[in-house]
Amino acid sequence: MTPLLEVDGVSRSFGSVPALVNASLTVERNSITALIGPNGSGKTTLFNVITGNLRADTGRVRFDGHDVTTARPAALYRRGLSRTYQQARVFSQLTVEENLVVAGGFGLAQLFGRRVNRRDRQRATELIDEFRLGRVADLPAAELSYGQRKLLEFAAVLMSSPTLILLDEPTAGVNPVLIETMEHHIRRLHAAGITFLIVEHDMNVVMRLCDPVVVLDQGREIFTGPPDAVREHPAVLDAYLGA
Amino acid sequence: MVQGVILGVLTAGVYALMASGQTLIFGIMRVVNMAQGAMVILGAYLSYQLFTSFGVDPFLAIPATTAVMFTVGVAVQLIFLRPLHQDDRTQLSVLVTFAVALLLEGVMSVLWSTSDRSINTGYVNASWTVLGYQISLVRLWAFLLSLVALGLLHVLLRRTRFGRAVRASVQNPESARLLGVDADRIAAIGFGLGAATAAAAGSVYGLLYPFNSGSHYDLISQLLSIVVLGGLGSIGGAVVGSLVISVSTAVVASAFSPIWAPMTFFVVLLSVLLIRPRGLFGTAARGAL
Amino acid sequence: MRMRRGVGPVRAAVFFLVLAVAPTFGLAHWLLTMLVFTLMFAVMASAWNLLGGFTGYPSLGHVAFFGIGAYAVVLWFQHHDISSGYEPFLLLPAIGLGVALVGLPIAAIAMRTRADVFAIVTITLLFVGQTLAFNLRDITGGAQGASIVPAPFPADSYEIPFYDALVVLLAVSMGLTWATMRSKVGLSLAAVRMDEDKAAGIGVRVQTVKLLAFCVSVGLTAMIGGIWAYYEGFIYPQFAFDPLISVAMVLMTFLGGRATLWGPVLGAFILELAQQYFAYSLGGSRFYLIAYALVFLVVILVMPRGILPSVRDRLWRRGRRRIVDAQLPAGDGPL
């Protein structure tokens, strides 16, 4: 069986600054793959290339056996690839429920149907329960805390039953209780068959949650392996300690 | 045809100067200045007034008009643009500068009425004939002056501390702030500079064309097309954009009919956007000056 | 919102009932004329709101479509007879549809980029329209203007057919706005306005809804242009493509409240009546332009969200303290 996601020799520069240099990465089906690396190593750029937000200069991206190198974010979303953003991008003037509904299905019939139809409402209500957002369900997202917004953005990508979710720093800037909540949801969804690719700074979270771990440095992939091997690997130590 | 190209290139100089101010303002603040055309016309009126009341030659009036317009520009930034809420700044700033354009139009029509004015110096109709083609002297001088002004702007942005600060905040506002660049000050001075280039261009514009308080609509739509064509925020792009637009307009006007000339730049604009939505030299999100 | 269901339709019914019966009270001509113009602007602001208010793409060139609609009526009736006087009104839907189709390719290109580039393309379009109207003399009569056969309505009730047609169009445009807000189209447009890239990334049909909003918006605007031309009887390029009409649509929408049902209509009633007053008291159009610009600046700087959202926000905050779970979204609930 082919891997769910294959990134093959992708390069991308901004002007004369290379952000990715011949980077490769494989995400096996039903894994929780971590993508780590020092600041500026190209993690977010790689995310953007995978999701179609940025075009690769060279190299290929395959998702679920299809070449999606030049696919747009919307097309990838329909194929089952969703992402969250580091800054938790939610629609601040829409309510929590609407934020979920807007990520639901978009057949033309639905588009001209009710703002919140029965099927969407049902799915949204389930997610609101699972993510314990019930108390704020009717509030505009602007009124939520940063952590709640992260949860909301995570919940919203589940409206479309994705097969692969890319999380960009899901635990950055949130309190320890919420970190546990995040981990809980990732494990739960992983058990239900969803694959994850996660950019994460908190090594404790990575150690507990992910396997394998991919390390990126200066736009190159320098290591792929199980979490306990990462800490001992000389190239990784070099990259982080700047030796 | 060749005559059309010559005319187009000479005109392009003046447009490049006006558009460089526009693109500078956009580069620094992400603000599309709808009042740039009105500022050019105000510059033209100022030098018209200096010429008719005191006999000052429009070319010599430029230091004075630029100084006045610099102040106007700084004032517009401080009073109208700085208080805007961050959320929908793009939309609001377009509307605010449009309102400023109307305000200037209103003020100008009160001060100078709405009839056409032109600056008639002794040399407006003088021309050289080179290889059988006519080259209007005023247009040549205007062209050279624009080149000088663009050169000065270039030196200012490349060689001075202020220029470095501007370029830093265009490329990365966050780190520029961390490096101690005062964004408000840069924005105010940047808007002032944009207005000052409008004044310089205005003096020249007044020599080349008759104008009235409503002329800025005509001007702003051409300026904006140039800037979009070149890629918002790129001064080099503004120069190329002016060349493309004024040469194609002049050629269409001389080869077919002046009626279709204004249509030309709209079609050029749409086709460029169709192929390159960010303009010829525009970069993804943040440009470089 | 859920608790106050039923208030909206009642409000709308009362409003349109008052509008419908108003002329039967034998209003003076000047008052009816004023109402005709106010209604024109109410429809246009409402139409502008569908695009500019809901999607956040600020069109500064809507009057280009107004002008096209106006010349369409004039041109058609240079070659066709008017007998009952109602023919131009019957032509309006065709004009709206035609202009919407003409607008489609322009919108498809202009909306590929960003809101600021869109504003630029639309203002350029306005200029091109104006120049063509001046220069294509064979068709438009150029600066000399073009005329249309006067409407054969009796003098003492001349305004009534125009008035009625405008009330119908206002009902149509508000009905469309209401339908938008209640459907997923409205939700999608709100998402586009707040974060278009994110919206595209979660499968929102960004392009479809943007183009739809644009076409409906310019179609309605063109229909008003047609009514205006017929009402005036004689049109000039500088009035058919007057940038101030574009400005008025924007300003009215901002004043009343973007992305609300009643905001643009409220804005139109306030501003158009104020405008008539200014025109009387300040005389010529020159000081009037300054006054207009100042109102514009003050509205945007002092109340950038407009009257209705600001008022609703205040009510909401008060209500929230009293009833914990009667929360209204501050965003787009129909008001």
Automatic annotation (TrEMBL), chain A:
Residues in ABC transporter domain copies: 5-243
Keywords from the named record: ATP-binding, Nucleotide-binding, Transport
Signal peptide bounds: none
A GO term for molecular function: ATP hydrolysis activity
Entry keyword annotation includes Cytoplasm: no
Record keyword RNA-binding present: no
InterPro entries: AAA+_ATPase, ABC_AA/LPS_Transport, ABC_transporter-like_ATP-bd, ABC_transporter-like_CS, BCA_ABC_TP_C, P-loop_NTPase
SUPFAM superfamilies from the UniProt entry: P-loop containing nucleoside triphosphate hydrolases (SSF52540)
Cellular component GO terms, alphabetical: plasma membrane
Protein name: Branched-chain amino acid transport system ATP-binding protein/branched-chain amino acid transport system permease protein
Species this chain originates from: Kutzneria buriramensis
TrEMBL record, chain B:
Signal peptide: none
CDD domains recorded: TM_PBP1_LivH_like
Family: Belongs to the binding-protein-dependent transport system permease family. LivHM subfamily.
Protein name per the record: Branched-chain amino acid transport system permease protein
Protein localization: Cell membrane
Transmembrane segments: 6-28, 60-80, 92-113, 133-157, 186-208, 220-245, 252-275
One Pfam family cited in the UniProt record for this chain: BPD_transp_2
GO process annotations (BP): amino acid transport
GO CC annotation, single: plasma membrane
Annotated keywords: Amino-acid transport, Cell membrane, Membrane, Transmembrane, Transmembrane helix, Transport
Predominant location: membrane
Domain of life assignment: Bacteria
GO molecular function: transmembrane transporter activity
Topology versus the membrane: Multi-pass membrane protein
UniProtKB/TrEMBL annotation, chain C:
Keyword Nuclease attributed: no
Residue ranges of the TM segments: 30-51, 60-77, 89-110, 117-136, 160-179, 211-229, 235-254, 261-280, 286-308
InterPro entries, A to Z: ABC_transp_permease, LivM-like
GO cellular component annotations of the record: plasma membrane
Compartments in which it is found: Cell membrane
Bilayer topology term: Multi-pass membrane protein
UniProt keywords, alphabetically: Cell membrane, Membrane, Transmembrane, Transmembrane helix
Matching Pfam families: BPD_transp_2
Chief localization: membrane
Molecular function, one GO term: branched-chain amino acid transmembrane transporter activity
Top-level taxon in the UniProt lineage: Bacteria
Protein name, entry field: Branched-chain amino acid transport system permease protein
Organism: Kutzneria buriramensis
